[in-house]
Amino acid sequence: MSAPSNKKFENRLVQWIDDRLPIFSYADANVIAYPTPKNLNYWWNYGSLAGIILVIMLVTGIFLAMNYQPHADVAFASVERIVRDVNYGWLLRYLHMNGASMFFIVVYIHMFRGLYYGSYKAPREILWMVGVTIYLAMMATAFMGYVLPWGQMSFWGATVITNLFSAFPLVGDYIVTWIWGGFSVDVPTINRFFVWHYLLPFILIGLVIVHLWALHVHKSNNPLGIDIKSPQDMMPFHPFYTIKDLYGLGLFMIFFMYFVFFAPNFFGEPDNYIPANPMVTPPHIVPEWYFLPFYAILRAVPDKLGGVLLMFAGVFVLYVLPWLDTSKVRSATFRPIFKQMYWIFFLDCIFLGYIGFNSPDEQLLGMKMLYWGRIATAYYFFHFLVLLPLIGKLETPKPLPSSIYEEVAKKCRAKED
Amino acid sequence: MTDNPTNTAEEIDGPRRDFLLISTSALGAAGVAVAAWPFIHSINPAADVLALASTEVDLSAIEEGQSVTVMWRGKPVFIRHRSAAEIAEAESVDTSDLKDPESDADRVQKAQWLVTVGVCTHLGCIPSGQSVGDNRGEFGGWYCPCHGSHYDTSGRIRKGPAPFNLPVPPYAFTEDTMIVIG
To answer: What is the ipTM of this complex?
Structure first.
């Protein structure tokens, strides 16, 4: 994604191909010799992990699609057939189902990494914004995938989420009818959701390529958050970070496979093993865990349209984050106040998820969940819209190290002593 | 390195790196190969497809000279209640003249019942000859309209591009006039 290097290859066939189609020098420039900051920690593993999970989702999804039938009458049975009768169908389905949760775990860590180390700041604003778009596309894909098994949660999840659009004045009802292709979630809906669920991941790949393209212009940010100044600050991606990424992948796969083999329905809802019934809504309906914080924001607002808008604002605020954070210092390591606010914000997000999981009428420390949800929602936006602009102006950052290289060398010396 | 300054980092790390690279790649390749199997196998016939792989047929309603077509594994199976003349013709053929030599006795369990898979062995079309008035080819059996293969009253290829006789599926008589195919 940087300009191809003028690398010469020993193998004459490789050189011959490269002169005509520079795939080898391209690979060399972007994954082999690709200069990477020397000081990346393990929080930088999650980008490549997300990419690998995307591939796993694509491959399992393509093979599942060979046995899945996107028709309301038979979709549920076809998924059960995949699990019971198709050779290794249970494995494909559980990889795909849990893979979705893994994808979000990895991407959330990747995003919080960026928030902590200021990876969204100049000159990486567009890189960040493409990332937010990837996140949106992922959410749409995950939602539509969850509808496909056509269980009770699928059906009512689809009904509730599509009804969000009915909140818009005048056109709302028309939009919802248009999305459904009818007057309720039904045969046309599942068919088109299947098409989108299959198509969006390929759009996601395109977005990932743009994400990497932008990444490779200014290279990775790093835990110190200071610019790369000399070649001494960097080392080649291969073998140093290929090995580090592989090691992280190995550990992550153990975590992933634990769920696939020992708790495949851990992230799911038992109600989704009841075939969709348009006449009965399950008593306790919750979205998948990765939507819970936004679900809490939605319910915090007493107005239908207001709730929907605020929920979308919760994601869209990330697009303007690079301009809300006024500090020039990237890494939280050198921002004493921001660092504390970061962790409070992190806990606020977890708390929002907890509220989203519970019924709004339940009590927590003598107060209704609903009111806790309002406080947590208010804080979520307070962090972005008030704290971030203010802290940048008021905080005195710690002195920044002069270079990555010196800081790494200092650490090495400390280890040797 | 400080112990022996004549050794470069390359000389020390080279073999170690090679070992790590080759063992990691080998293990990775083996892992991918093992992981590929569930994917490849998932598009083989599933348990429910295999469970439908046998078909029961009641022969009592088939009159002499009549043929019926039944479905077995998604393919047509021809069952012909052969007349004495047809049996005699099938048995009289000198097998050494045949493209795919097989005696009629090897192709039937009871002489009056001929059971074959009704798919031309050339390129998979369904030969005609099941109904009265169909073109049965020059040998009174079946005729494939796609590329002109002629089958005789034992379902053997006699003329045309098909390389083999119509295959006889595995079947067994469970009663005098009841068979299970597959």
So the answer is: 0.85
